[in-house]
Amino acid sequence: MAHVKFTQALRRFYPDLKPLHLEGSTIAEIVQGLEDKYPGLKDYIVDEHGQLRKHVNIFIQNSLIKDRTHLQDKITDQDEIYIMQALSGG
Amino acid sequence: MSERALVGTRKGLLVLQKKGSHWKIIDDFFTGIPVNMVYQDTQNGDWWAALDHGHWGSKLQVSSDEGNSWTEVEAPKYPEGAEVKDGVPAKLNYIWAFANSLSGTDHKLYIGTEPGGLFHRNGSLEDGAHLVQSLWDHPSRKEQWFGGGRDNPGIHSILIDPRNNEHIYIGISCAGVFKSEDGGSTWTHRNKGLNATFLPDPEMEIGHDPHILKFCAAQPDVMWQQNHCGIFRTTNGGELWQEVSQEGGPAFFGFALAVHEENPERAWVAPAQSDEIRVAIDKKLCISRTDDGGKTWTDFRTGLPQEHCYDIVYRHALVSQGNDLLFGTTTGNLFSSADEGESWDVVSNYLPMIYCIEFIE
After folding, report:
1. Chain B residues whose beta carbon lies within 8 Å of the beta carbon of residue A9
2. Over chain B, what is the mean pLDDT?
3. ipTM
4. Does residue A55 form part of some domain?
5. Which SS3 state, helix, strand or coil, does residue B224 take?
6. How many CB atoms lie within 10 A of CB A19?
7. Of the candidates B59, B72, B78, which has its C-beta nearest A48's C-beta?
8. Among all residues of chain B, which has the CA nearest to that of A42?
9. How far apart are alpha carbons B75 and B177 in whole angstroms?
């Protein structure tokens, strides 16, 4: 199972949010897995059409995902996934 | 009479309470998060707040216990296939207006958004927001609506006739005023008499830029709008608008407008210097009032900064109730008046940018 980590900023809205392991072969499946565990969290990460929000980034290992529209980047059980917001304010 | 108000700012939600003749900040919520719209449902008293998270999208919060606890409910979602223009998917960018049905068993909360969708929620918090498809499918939308200050058209004003829940007016920047007389099933534009100097034909039926639309609660056929191109008033529910801007005076361009609840002749505006500059006129802040339906205007300045003032007042940030008025500015100044806008007290000079104010019961 992939290991999923988050920016601290999301803990303001989900105080119980902790790094976790999730089943899934694509980022889209991981995001759905997060929604199942933390209802509503998906809406913070993607918009109503499932596209990654403009100022949110997802890394697989040290690489940004390529498919921000459908989140079809493939992942393996050994991957570490990091969900973060874009930096703002310098 | 209300002696409290909600204030939405760039850094959170404030609660004001009137103590004697002065207003004090007594509570705050969502510190650090932009609260771009606030509203109290007049049927059940719920407080609503629209949060504009830069990174995480627009969110809706509601409190049924005056802020002691807040619940996030699902924000409006544009359905799959909805397009702003051909090939451009519609996504919720901004929540810009609330209004609830006023009587009867059909309790609805309407929500205006950018990019131009009107949504309604039923009474249950578990139920989501539903796009008013009839307006979204209006034949003028894709071709004749466009963004003004924002990227896309947005619904910033929703008025429900207190005599008839089926009569709904909305204000759209940029498209103009639309009205439904059948509870939102069909819509017609109500822009005759407006003058959009930025259009090739200033009298086009659609494409106008009302910055805010309000009516006199006791006589809802009397409506006012602070428009991009002046101040306009109608006495027949938008069948015909008349310009009531002040000839040679400050009451012309601006964003905010307050309308007396009972006196259809009285309104206030917060003049600003031209659309290109957008500061207080001559860097001196004033509020202008008319008591004769816009025939004449008087600008009031007592208690307001009269030098080096860059403040403007956003469209939802000037409100009136009885003799009381409140307004807040882009540079975080909050003022109150207890004498119908003739003199002003400082509530605070140290707030974040103020987006909106709402009197609450």
Report:
1. 55
2. 95
3. 0.81
4. yes
5. strand
6. 11
7. B78
8. B56
9. 25
Residue A31 lies in domain: 2-85
The answer to whether the CB atoms of A53 and B57 lie below 8 A apart is yes
In a domain, A50, yes or no: yes
Say if residues B286 and B271 touch (Cβ distance below 8 Å): yes
Contact at CB, A55 and B55, closer than 8 angstroms: yes
Beta carbons of B56 and A56 less than 8 Å apart: yes
Question: How far out from the chain centre does Cα B349 lie?
Answer: 23
Sort out which chain A residues have CB atoms less than 8 A from B77's CB and list them: 48
CATH code of residue A7:
3.10.20.30
Distance CA B260, CA B214 (A): 10
Contacts B56 to A, Cβ<8 Å? 10, 13, 44-45, 53, 56, 85
Q: For position B1, what pLDDT does the model report? A: 64
Tell me the CA distances in angstroms from B118 to A75, B90, B92, B112, B201, one per residue in order: 39, 13, 11, 5, 27
**What are the pLDDT digits (tens) for B87-126?**
999 999 999 999 999 876 678 999 999 999 999 998 778 8
